[in-house]
Amino acid sequence: MNCREGCGACCIAPSISTPLPGMPNGKPAGERCVHLSVDALCGLFGQPERPAVCSDFKANIDVCGNDREEAINLIGWWERMTAA
Which residue from 8, 24, 25, 49 has the fewest beta carbons nearer than 10 Å? Predict the structure, then answer.
C-alpha cells in the first residue's frame, strides 16, 4: 500500500517519544507534528533529522484503513492499546 497524498494521519495520531526539530520533547498523540505542511506533507521527508520512527513507518491497510478519518481512528486506537 502507498501512502495517501494529503492524509497525514501518521503525523497526527501517534505519539513520537524521540526529540525532533522544533519538538524537543517529542510529539504527544493526537497533536499535529510541526513539520506537517498544510498539504499534509512531511517537511522533514528525506532529511537526516527525520525521526527513525517516521522513516520506518510503512502504510498498511490494517493501520491506514480506507481514508484519512479511518487512519486517524485506527492509529489512535493502536496508540492507546500500546501506551505504557
Answer: 24
